[in-house]
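Aggregate trends can hide what the representation actually does to any particular protein. The sequence in question and its structure tokens are set out directly beneath this paragraph.
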Amino acid sequence: MSEQTKETLPLRGIDHVEFYVGNAKQAAHFYKTAFGFQSLAYAGPETGVRDRASYVLQQKKVTFIFTSPLHEDHPISDHIKKHGDGVRTIAFEVEDAAHSWQETTSRGATSFQEPTTQKDENGTVVVSGIHTYGDTIHLFVDRNHYDGPFLPGYEAWSSHYNPEPTGLIYVDHCVGNVGWGQMNTWCEFYRNVMGFDQLISFDDKDISTEFTALMSKVMTSSNQKVKFPINEPAKGKKKSQIEEYIEFYNGAGVQHVAIGTGDILTTVTQLRDRGVEFLYVPGTYYDDLIDRVGEIEEELQQIRELGILVDRDEDGYLLQIFTKPVQDRPTVFFEIIQRKGARSFGKGNFKALFESIEREQERRGNL
């Protein structure tokens, strides 16, 4: 990639992730209680927004919005009817939202929102947006001249109920599931439209079990602050997790959001104690763990008890664990990850992880 291309779309990182959900008030309560997010801002009828209610939660650098429509004929109602609760928006913080929109649309992106200036007593924010896979959108947010709680139209949201944080720090990556033969199309979208590079690639020999398989490529911004793995199904004996997701989500979308922590043992212990359910990993996974990944600082017994997976690459090792879906449709889930030098995505854990997912699929009758 040329130096000029790298400079045309500088992304400071993920500004926020917005979920469209059936009941935003209750979803916000769940993410505060279970994941330790803190109240940040609110928009709704009380703030002059007549068609929806949005609750903004934050934990360190992770900002989530949960939005519900207030009327049945609202487009958000259509989104929820089709997809269930799911990610609608992955927003980037940028230096210049107008420039970001111009660059991406000139390279072939479909516009979602032309650059729009939003104002209130706290300053101005410029927001623009483009479409990506499925009904997912990307927003470009320029908040250089704004010091309000979140965005114009939102007011600060303080709450008497504020459970302690659980140690979540930043969004490590967001994974997209797309249909058969669509992975390369969307990887080229991120390469050509967004100026991303391919960080790593996995085929069905890397990501397969006795029954199912998938393929994946990881696309990253030039500064590696934004990383997007893109998955598509691969042929197997039974229905893969990607096919199950697409069937229940009714199309392509965000499969999971990976959130980084500095102490995965403490974070997972707290999440589990608060009711977050994780995929089961059989004890045999740990029998030869040290032989496979080498010495690690954490106690093996505690890792085994929590069901945490470990993998190593040439730069170090990582620890990761995956929740079960956080809604009744088997779609969106979360990954908790701690990197100790490793820049990869746990290739050595794929077989164990996917066998765990298959066990859940079989219980649902969807394998």
